[in-house]
Amino acid sequence: MSASTASMRGFSLPELMVAMVIGLVLTLAVSVLVLRQESFRRGVSSGNDLTSNAAYAAYFLDRELRSAGAGFSQTVAENYGCLVHASRDKAQLLPAARGFPAPFSAVPGSYRLVPLVVFAGAGANGSDVIAVATGNAGLGESSLPVAPKSVTAERLTLSNTLGMRAGDLALLSQVGLGCMVQQVNAGFVGGRVPVLEFGGSYAAETIGGLGIRSFSTGNSFVTLLGNLVGNQPRLELLGIGAGGTLFAYDLLQLNADGSQPLVEGVVDLRVRYGVDTGKGGQVDAWVAPSTAGFTAAELTNASVASQGRLQSILAVRIGLVLRSDLVDKTEVTPASLTLFSDLDEALRYRFAVPAGTTNQRYRVVEFTVPLRNIRDSR
After folding, report:
1. Is residue 18 scored above 90 in pLDDT?
2. Nearest-5° Cα angle at 208, 205 to 210
3. In which domain of life is the source organism classified (predicted)?
4. Is 0.85 surpassed by the pTM of this model?
5. What is the CA 162 to chain-centroid distance, rounded?
6. Nearest of 130, 128, 131, 39 to residue 321 by alpha carbon
7. Kind plus residue range of the DSSP H or E element containing 7
């Protein structure tokens, strides 16, 4: 064999087989690394989505609940538990004759004004629904007595109208009668003049059988709730809808006509009341909203006992369960999750992960919101 022929000789069969085996091993190793990297990336992406949704849900609920009762807590006897009558452009809003839209259809349409109340199990899949009311007048936030026999279809007399302006929403209330939302007339400027004039979309002579002249007996009060522009009051329902979305419903429909989706991926909402049982000004017990004396029906019945219990609720503890849309190839979530695990057994809640979704990532988020405007400070 010549030198030129020897230099042109290729790999032998054993050499080729060894090279192929090495190549296959390297390919397998690279494939495993790529798959693990993709799984890690999906896990990180899923976790980031849950973190973002949880952060926004917590921020939104804290913002909406923290000031519950602001603006109307100075007149507890007249306002707490009163049946609210409201209309817009002559169409009755409250009481809601046809009930509320999904996901709040299980909440009674006869809405009663309280700072915050929880309708246990009234949301999707038995989750809780929160009703919260917050005034936003930004003034002295004290109710003014109505002069006897001064109420007509369009005006009434107070001691003064300082700080009142056009577009303000005023709440007329009286023990045993209920309360009615009215709107201050366009062009009105308050001051030392005692006559308050009504007119506009939310002004009405009669709503749901209750007439404005019924508030002329001398035991009625006017409380400013806020204004149509800028500092709007918030009377709303918060809860979980089908498909795992946190919804809000504006009871006065100031900016929307229906339920508004807020945060996706929220599949459960549970609440516990933080109660001051010893009248020491701090939470010393946690109570479930299904407990006797603290059910929605009992807290909103306008009795002296219920008004006292409402003033004893100094905080609420919120528990959320969130779920990612991304599906893993393996199970990444246990069959059940526990909320309020540091409380007594009777106050804990165990969320059963729906069958077939344990390969989706879940996260439990809990936080406490202090309620600053619950008690009558007069």
Report:
1. no
2. 55
3. Bacteria
4. yes
5. 33
6. 128
7. helix 3-7
The Cβ of residue 47 has, within 10 Å, a number of other Cβ atoms equal to 14
Residue-wise pLDDT for 183-217, tens only, equals 999 999 998 889 999 999 999 999 999 999 999 98
Rounded CA-CA distance 323/28 in Å is 33
Q: Report d(CA 129, CA 107) in Å as an integer.
A: 8
Chain centre to alpha carbon of residue 112: 17
Rg (CA), the chain: 30
d(CA 63, CA 106): 25
User: 144-145 and 206-207 as β-strands: parallel, antiparallel, unpaired?
Assistant: unpaired
137 and 169 Cβ atoms separated by less than 8 Å: no
Using the CB atoms, write b or e for 66-92: b if 16+ within 10 Å: bbbbbbbbbbbebbbbbbbbbbbeeeb
The DSSP annotation for 247-275 comes to EEEETT-SS-SSEEEEEETEEEEEEEEEE
Structure token pair of residue 284: 């010393």
Q: pLDDT > 70: what percent of the chain?
A: 91
Q: Which helix (H) or strand (E) element contains residue 105?
A: none
Residue 99 to residues 95, 110, 251, 296, Cα–Cα distance (Å): 8, 8, 11, 16
Q: Which of 101, 230, 83 is nearest to 169 (CA)?
A: 230
